Amino acid sequence: MDKLKVLLLTFSFMLLSISSCFAWGLGWGWGDLDDIGDRPLIQYYAHTLENGWSDRANDGEAAGDPYGSQTIDAIRVQFLTGRNMYVMYRVHVQNGEWTGWAMNGSTAGIYGKPIDGIQIALGSWRGDLWSVSYKGRIKNQGWSREWLPEGEILGNLQDPILSFRVRVQ
């Protein structure tokens, strides 16, 4: 009886391993498959109460309202390419607190409540080959001058963020 249990457990483990490899081969992992040397491409969206979700912004483009006054109340960030990589992000809600960390295209924010802070970080099974940086347009202040390194807080935790940009290097 014990030999049968060991055999069944071994077979189950082998089947699980094979199916995981098959799923990664189909690109069901984090991002599409690419060569290790290719720079991963990131895409992101901003949600405003007035217009809903913005069109997709890619690597350095502005998401949200770069020239107007509509405040962002939610964001989504994900990789278009980037094998075995993931992106984590959270937002600070005006007159509130930080949300939990969201990952890979999940929504961070509360619809109808302006965001006044954003943090973004990358994760990878390949080590520290790439880094993320970001900047934003804050109400009554304009665009931030510098690109912030990952983990830094974008915003002043008081004034709403109107637009943001993300890039991977």
Query: What is the H/E order?
Result: HEEEEEEEEEEEEE
Structural class: mainly beta
- Specify the overall morphology: globular
Radius of gyration: 20 Å
Q: How many β strands by DSSP? A: 13
Low-confidence stretches: 6-36
Give the rounded overall mean pLDDT.
Answer: 83
Instruction: Please give the largest β-sheet.
Output: 5 strands, antiparallel
Strand content: 35-45%
> Given the structure, what is the number of helices?
1
Count of the domains: 2
Give structural attributes.
single chain; 169 residues; mainly beta; 2 domains; 5-stranded antiparallel β-sheet; 1 helix; globular
Structure, explained:
The chain folds into two domains: 1-30; 42-168, no CATH class. The chain is globular and about 65 Å long. The relative contact order is 0.19. It has one helix at 2-25; strands at residues 42-48, 52-53, 57-58, 63-64, 72-79, 85-93, 102-103, 108-109, 115-124, 132-138, 142-143, 148-149, 161-168. Strands 1, 2, 3, 5 and 8 form a five-stranded antiparallel beta sheet that branches. Strands 4, 10, 11, 12 and 13 form a five-stranded antiparallel beta sheet that branches. A three-stranded antiparallel beta sheet has the order 7-6-9, with no helix packed on it. The model is unreliable at 6-36 (pLDDT under 50). With 169 residues, the protein is mainly β.
